[in-house]
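Re: weekly structure request thread

Next one in the queue (109 aa):
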Amino acid sequence: MDRAGTFEASPFAGDATLLCVNDEEVRVYTYLTDQERAAVANSIDPSDPSKVGTALIAWAGDPRFWQSARMLILYLGPDQATEGLLTTLLGQPFSRGLGRGAGPGSSAC
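Done, posted below.
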């Protein structure tokens, strides 16, 4: 696991760090308190993470969210091994859904 930089935290607040896990991008949002993290997590629809509060997000990939302590972890990629590793470390995602497919993006990993 390597740190690949930062990214725009929108639609969430918090510090945004991009990690490379199995050559896949994993987004980590870090908050000052567990309560801040919980408030953001509670705004994400568990069965449809494209619904965040009153906003609709068109994720480039299939979003899966985990939470731990002061962190929200988002994985959008298709790699089963990466999802399996995150699930082993963090438990089952609290929210998962279908996005709009992989974007043309440039991976930082």
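Helices lie at 34-42, 80-90. Residues 44 and 52 are 5 Å apart (CA to CA).
Next request, please.
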